[in-house]
Structures are given as C-alpha cells and as structure tokens.
Write a structure and sequence with these properties.
alpha/beta, globular, 5 helices
C-alpha cells in the first residue's frame, strides 16, 4: 500500500450503478489500483484476463444485486475461474485466493450467508459505507472480514 513500501493492492470493483463505482473509486484513490466492471460478465472477463496475465486481483468488491448475472452467481463463477488457475496444496488448502467482499444495500443477513455458503466470499459490507470501512475491508488480512 502507499506509504508502507508494499505494492498497491489490485482491486476489481463490480457494480452496475455508476454513482457507486465513482464513490468506491474515490474512496480507494491513493490506496490501491482499481479496475471497474459494470456487470457480472464484464467482471468475469477482467478476472480471467488478470489470471491469465499472472497478475490476479487481490480483492474484488462485488455488488450482490445486478441485472442478468447477479453477484452470487458471479462470485461462484469467479471462484471456479480462480480454481482453474491456482494451485491447490495438500489437504485441499487453496493458495493465493482472491478476497471477495460482497457489497449491498440489503439489510438481510441471508444475503451474506448465501454468498458465504454458495461462493466462499470473504466479507460483506452494507451500503452506505464510509471510506474508513471500505479501506479496512480492502486492506484486512484473514479469511472473513
């Protein structure tokens, strides 16, 4: 991250609502490098390309509610793409998995539970959120935030 000597995190923002994308980009400015996808299909293409190039995303901020391909289905497909590119160690432990944080306006805890159980998301953040919350989620370490 900026100022610590570590490289900036590479983040993929996936949201079909342009004001949300602009807000997230501004909140993460100077903290990490952001790419943007405005649909699940676009996210899959960008994610696949980053994997193929050997420069995968560190974090994906993924909106749950999107038209056509919703966030949970996108999450499942991202994990499937990822597993086709990443090594699996002894006893099935995955290495270097991208942290995927679901974002939504919903206050229904079932949305997070579905994302966690169906797609192994690493966290959840409810809109509206603050810059501090976003930075904390993106920069956190560990499995679930």
């Amino acid at each position: 991250m900026t100022g610590t000597g570590a490289p900036p995190r590479k983040v993929l923002i996936v949201d079909d609502h342009p004001p949300s994308v602009v807000l997230l980009q501004s909140m993460l400015e100077g903290v990490c490098d952001c790419a943007v996808a405005t649909s699940g299909q676009d996210a899959l293409m960008l994610f696949q390309q980053a994997q193929t190039d050997g420069d995968p995303f560190d974090v994906v901020l993924l909106d749950i509610f999107m038209p056509d391909l919703d966030g949970i289905e996108t999450l499942k497909r991202l994990r499937k793409l990822e597993m086709s590119h990443r090594e699996v160690q002894l006893f099935g432990r995955q290495t270097g998995l991208t942290r995927i944080i679901m974002q939504t306006i919903s206050d229904n805890p079932q949305d997070f539970l579905d994302a966690y159980l169906e797609g192994r998301c690493n966290g959840y953040i409810q809109k509206p959120y603050s810059r501090e919350e976003i930075i904390a989620k993106v920069c956190a370490t560990g499995a679930v935030v």
